[in-house]
User: Fold these one by one.
Assistant:
Number 1:
Amino acid sequence: MAPPETGDFGELLLSAPVARALREMGYREPTPIQREAIPPFLAGKDVVGRAKTGTGKTAAFGIPLAEKIDPRRPGVQALVLVPTRELARQVADDLGRIGRYRGLKVLPVYGGEAIGPQAQALERGVHVVVGTPGRVIDHLSRGTLHFREVRIVILDECDEMLDIGFAEDIETILRRTPKARQTGLFSATIPLFVRKLVWRYMKDPVFIEIDPDQPIVETIEQVYYEVAERDKLAALIEVLDRMTGEERILIFRRTQRGVDGLTRTMWDQGFHIQALHGGMKQSERNRVMTAFRSGALPLLVATNVAARGIDVEGITHVINYDFPESVEEYIHRIGRTARAGRPGTAISFVAEWDLAVFEQIRARVGDRLRRGQLQLYPSRALAG
């Protein structure tokens, strides 16, 4: 018989406030990573979770955080490290929603915005800090953030944090957190340095791997078009002209200059489109992401770095306007669609000098990557 004040999340028994929040968020059954990670985390174990992008890793640690933190105690009790500003905001928002009926106070901290308001919020009191490593260290050095009460540390998208140069910062932060802590590490891949972090800073962790040999979710339809570099703009417009207008589309380019150029051209041709890259002011990046996340903005052009960690439900299509430079980059990019079991489509333009990497990707994904056909007629948008 269930104790009072509890609720169900599939076969998992949670507190009534957390179960209520999950129902309101539309969560009915745990995903495989949630089903495997939540019980040992609730039991106080360190957890290493490896699962492909879009499988619900945030809730896999967010639900235990919401259950284990005592909202009556002042001070930061949990720290979540993430690779990018956008992901800090998204994870903080998700944790706030999961813990809303338990009174959980969650604060995102990241660079690109004034540090003063973040320091003031920390002084007023928060339970969970979600931050990029650089800004967390900045607060530590200023004395505006303390780890005295921290009992839980989460490394989210750990492989991506290492990819963009946060290895030393991560170790600095882990060394300053209390040794009597619980640690969770979640990652799509487990390269050597991630394994070293596990050996050095985790205590007898529970290892969870969900489909490690299938890094791409099965609900992604993968299509490629052989397109000369000079024809990519016409190809993009033809692809978009085939759509219904209900889609939400993320387009990748390699450089900030390429993002800005394509955005201006498509805007001039009548498409509702915006850019996202590291050269933009943080306030502008926030505005663009809010519009894209809400569905008010249907088309977003981004660089790899800016799009790392974007976790937006409802992205229907990813378009590789510039072809990825590695298999890993391809997997990370197309993993932005088909989140949480939804279907999605990944479209790639393969130009003349992309063939070597293309063959590596095709060898990895096999028959699931199919060839499409374009007419490349003079389009309505290019006619002028």
Number 2:
Amino acid sequence: MSFVSENGGVVRESWPRWMAAIVGIVCICAGIWQLEYERSGLSIESLAVGTTPATVYRRAGGAKAPAVVIAHGFAGSRQLMEAYALTLAQAGYVAVSFDFEGHGRNPTPMSGDVTRIDGTTRLLMSELGRVIDAVLGLPYVDGRIALLGHSMASDIVVRKAIADPRVMATVAVSMFSEAVTATQPRNLLVVTGQWEAFLRNEALHKLRLAEPSAVEGSTAGDPERGTGRRAVVAPHVEHVGVLHSPTALEEARNWLDSAFKRQSAGRVASTGGPVALLLFGIVLLAWPLSQLLPKGEAAPSPVPLPTFAVALFFCAFQAIVITDSRPS
């Protein structure tokens, strides 16, 4: 913005950039504050299982409780699954998330043939098994365990739950798995986003293996006896948004309560809004900060605003959800 002064000179005001900087900083601070608030009252500790890095979430000073091992999807990390870890920890569970080989801060590359069950899938199942063994050895775990996995990991946790009789319940988010049968794995909850049409149909198909007349949102079998089946839809979300959906988080907690015969208290983590606010603040702050860069002799070709905005968004997203700023 500019205006003409009394002596005819042109005075350029920088207040729009200052306002953008202030609003950006406020958004960033508000997002960080909300994310930290969701961790309040919890003990968050690092756990190393060989070369596999993991994070343990639990109520500070809480009694022994069942454990839930949480697995991320392809190209993800344990940070993407934090809303589930926080919600379950606030409910009194010991929630443990980890980075698969080739993901996050795991230094071991992913290996094996990704097209064969006896290839990469089997290797990831073995890694999950080592994490389960380590978690069951923690002094504050009462010997009971459940699994939760998203996308790629939904098939991993389903197959591991079928093979490991210690697993009492499974939550599969955005699931596709050919291993599901009418009775296996025990106590299966399938959660999909409203905008995941193919996976919604797959979830309903698996539910109807146990109860042919079942519909979305219904429960077949009895979770207390290990025969429970349920398929639910999280409204207004897709493959990533389902990881922050209050409906999905609450359904996962309630399902595990049914399987473990518990009644949990505690808030459902609100992470989607704060992450969006944080992203918006970073993108907004980039404009005034860009003015601090040295000026070149020749002006570069202008970048279209939509292209610039998309590039900033994905850079900010990667910085937030892939870079782990907490202990590991």
Number 3:
Amino acid sequence: MSDLQPPINSKLSKRAPQPPGLPLVGHLFALQRKGQFQYNLDNWQQYGDIVRLQLGPFVVHILAHPAHIRHVLIDNRQNYGRGRGYQVLKLLTGEGLLTSEGDFWKRQRRLIQPPFTPKVVPQYGPEISKTITAFLARWDDAAIRGTTIDGQTEMLKLTLQILGKTMFNLDLAAQAADLTEAFTTAVAIVGDRITAGMDLPRWAPTPANLRLKRALRTLDTRIYALIEERQRQPEDHTDLLAQLLNARDPETGKSMDLHQVRDEVMTIFFAGHETTAQTLTWVWLLLAQHPAVAAHLQAELTAVLGGRAPQVEDLPQLPYTSRILHETMRLYPAVWAIPRGANGPDEIGGYHIPAGSMVFPMPYNAHRHPDFWENPTAFQPERWTSARVAQLPDCAYLPFGDGPRACIGRHYALQEALLVIATIAQRYQLQLVAGQTITPHSSITLAPKDGVRFQIKPRMPG
């Protein structure tokens, strides 16, 4: 249990430290000038584990300490709703599992949980491996010709195709480029709106609003077509979409309307491919930057697999591959911030949290907190020993969130990512194209700004 729950007395508890701001707008211009990512890091270094910001009309608290994060996500979670960030996210996902709350969320989670349980997830292994192999046929040609790829775009396409096949029995290879572009556009614009402090109306004919409208039209057209096609031919399907269409409210007996099915499908598509794709992009970047780690990975893959494609049964025999994945998610968690809204007043670390304000537990900061991580900015997969992990306090490492609203698909995502890493790393070496400046960009997910370009080299046997 957290020790951060003293009686609340807003007259006695202090206001959290904050950087200098301007009248009315507070820290909004400084955040926009520096970028939220760098502004977050600068404030954490200067002001500590709890930082108060005024973003126009919004009071925001940034949390870096694991105990403070646990207080919000677990110990006093009843006081913290999804907050403004998730209200903006509804532009993309509607009332899906990510954004819904209360009894409705509990019902939807019970409905969507079965395909993502640890017992069921291994069943997807053969289809994941098959999809990876088919996808990489394009890379063979690129490797021969010496062309370069955008690793981020490629991982988005790959994870989208894997999700389409495993969750919806749908071959998205022909549609992957359009869908990836539409998701990338929508995620970037919605992410900017979340952090803008003030929203322009969606109907305003700004360039960003027009791009968002086109992207959502593309996504909606494809998703509604998928739903309608399945309704016409419902037989012999047992996938997630079939479960959504066949679900009945236990009290009313009513099925979900098409719009709600759309929201859940959109949520699964977004959450199920975007975060894993960004994580894999960071994996390839870090391996390219750390040849000794890459060599250790190759030694493990050669010893265990000997050149054959990995299967789910092989994953427990690939501990170093797993450590690379976890160290990547520590340094670059796709879910870098977890916005919440305070329903009532609270006190965290001796600081007053007013009702109606926003709090941002920051996995990115917690994962680099020097009190819990030795040499926190270094890429060291070796740190992921069982003994070391056992010493970590709650919420010191939370790439999938924590508490009752932790990511429903975390077991699926870990299995998928490990199969992708083991397959690609055996076949190719991804070399960074010279002259790139790789900068983390914090939108809804943490992604390399402008992508990462690699040259694909065939890996020689042995």
Number 4:
Amino acid sequence: MTVRKLPLGLLLLAALTAAPAVQAADAPTLNAANTAWMLTASVLVLFMTLPGLALFYGGLVRTKNVLSVLMQCFAITAMVSLVWVAFAYSLAFGDGGPFNAWLGGLAKSFMAGIGVTTLKGTIPETVFAMFQMTFAIITPALVVGGFAERMKFSAMLLFSFLWLMLVYVPVCHWVWGDGWLQKLGVLDFAGGIVVHVNAGVAALVAALMLGKRKGFPETAMPPHNLTMTVAGAGMLWVGWFGFNAGSALAADGTAGMTMLVTHIGAAAGAFVWMLCEWVRFGKPSVLGIATGVIAGLGTITPASGFVGPMGALAIGGAAGLVCFFATNYMKRTLHVDDSLDVFPVHGVGGAMGTTLTGVFVAAALGGVGYAEGMGMGQQVLTQLIGVAVTAVWSGALTFAILKVVDALLGVRVNVEEETEGLDTTQHNETGYNL
């Protein structure tokens, strides 16, 4: 059979009309389902700070300081949102050119070049920026728990701004913004390093530098409203599904598994903490089970997109056990006044969860499997490097920032103001008029 030759003009016309189709197929396109899920996840993560974390922390402090904690969470939310839009997002997720291993550039400052049709993968970049903003908000808000009831409001604002720019933004870029830790192979699906180790170490340094609250540990300082704390813990538990499953950036099987293992980790952490307290002190407490669920959630976070249900059960159970003893050891033996137990819950939990990710990511244990050429030993070592680098960076920079803020404003209220309470002395208000 003879094939008749086509005229040259028809061949050129066919080539020209086919080229756009090929290019269109390769170009990223918006996925409505992914976009809808990421809009929802962004709302859930913001809900974790306001009202979730605000109520959780607010109930844990004494009556005279409840408004100060709520105010700090609100003010951090507003301040970080503005700074994120101005230049923090660009530095965290922009292209830093020859310095991209360490920090992004400023090309996307004030959301330059980001419009209605601009995509990040299959979702609008506006949605991606908003989702990441909610992470940037909750991380410095977590640090508040380390120095609660004794830092000046003005000092807290300046500290949170400097900490966001000098600590959070670089670490975020290293791990999630195509920085050097990401290229090294560190696995942190939703913030074990970026959020929990980072915030936990900063809270510990702040607690040590500011010193103990007046009367600690001789004077009992029980939570003033456990009902508020449990309500906040419940909101955090629900919001955490957006925190972890949203980090898949898609409405797919990874997001589904992430949501499942997040819940398993939370439940295991809560139940094991309750059992530990029951055995150790004779009765399980509401405060204990609420703290246990936060420990389980924080510890499963880095592993959530990489492990299976059995891995989540092991990681969550380890969180309930280890974080329980870490909290009691710091409070009762070392007498470190980390007011709301940020380091033993978030710092210890985040470090442990990040390390155990290197174990339970193994396909034989139900995980997604290691990257090509990497085994369990190498992955665990890589995870430990990520934890150690972040702990040193956060600790050293937090120390330096607090020194600067103290020289400029003074970080701690005086004895009379602390005795009267921060609600009155810093905001001229009271939480209750009974």
